[in-house]
Here is the input.
Amino acid sequence: MNRLVKCGLENRIGSDCLKWDGLRERFGNEDLIAMWVADMDFKTPQPVIDALKERVEHGIFGYHMIPDSYYEAFINWEKEKHGYDIKREWIRFSPGVVPALFWFINILTNPGDSCIVMGPVYYPFHHAIEENNRKLIFNNLKNNNGIYTIDFESFERDIIENKVKLFILSSPHNPVGRVWTKEELKKALDICKANNVFVLADEIHQDIIIGDKKQIPAATVGDYDNILVTLTAATKTFNLAACQNSFVIIPDNKIRERFDEYFKSIGGDCGNIFGYIAVEAAYRYGEEWLNEILAKIKENYEYTKEILSMHLPHVVISPLEGTYLAWYDFSYYINEKDIKNFFQYKCNLAVDYGSWFGEAGKGHIRINLATERKIVEEAMNNIIKQLL
Ligand SMILES: Cc1ncc(COP(=O)(O)O)c(C=O)c1O
Here is the structure.
């Protein structure tokens, strides 16, 4: 824990945060350098803290309603930042993007149906499919020396051969860091539309854009309303995961009716008041903070590229176009079977192992760069020291 003090992260000590305080439970060692789960080591924007304080001072926490101003802040953000014109009546609540994935698999498919993902991909996608007794189909991305692209031919073939009913899109893509182009999105969605495949577009990382590419919401690239649901949130953007507040966007009346019916059947609720307060304040007043954080993440990423290419030139580093989760291929230096032993026991790091994201992730690790530079330096030094 001294490390956290030295690195200016004393705020995280004993705050019951999963990333650091959960190290013992998840990795069996509380002294690791935590660079795994996707949250930031940074304080949320001050206006969010102020808005929450003000509401706490109010002191009455009876049943609440969702204020119009919350919807207004989100709709404006989507329109101004992403060019997505969302109607108020399309929006529904979920405490998180992951719960919404589980719900929609139940709403849009039947047990035994096939659901497709593009591997390597965020592992809760796999869980949502398999834990609901659907068949998980991996259509792996093409990997050309760390640059990932969609294999459209095999994507369509896998859909047809497996009679796929639903596709979960990660955009930007966790863990390979791609920000999909309009052409890529359109091509994938056209294949889905032609084959009656529903699409869940998980766009939770939409605001974490590190490279020069522009993030494009899937819903804006064509007419896909009758197959597409978008899931997004302010929680990654402004480090508010514990506030449990996310957006489900359903432009199609029929899908919305099915969602509403399902939500009623599970006793769905609208979450807690603090999530709404935090999200609204973040969208209204958080942009400057976000720009500073993005610059920090980019610097951290550039630093890892520079130091690794200097000392370990055979590590393949995927371009970090989006997300704060960088993707490194260490297969030249380390056998897959030794990966955990190497990173956890020799380098003292808690990272996400590539194999968690599917077969195509083997040989890789995912490192969370939304942290202080000193943490990144210590991690890189530990790795380099072991391999030189
Ligand atoms: C692609 C992706 N979707 C969803 C989530 C989590 O969403 P939530 O906390 O809203 O359930 C994450 C968090 O890492 C993620 O990377």
About this structure: The pocket of pyridoxal-5'-phosphate is lined by residues 38, 96-98, 122, 170, 174, 202, 204, 233, 235, 241, 246 (CB under 6 Å).
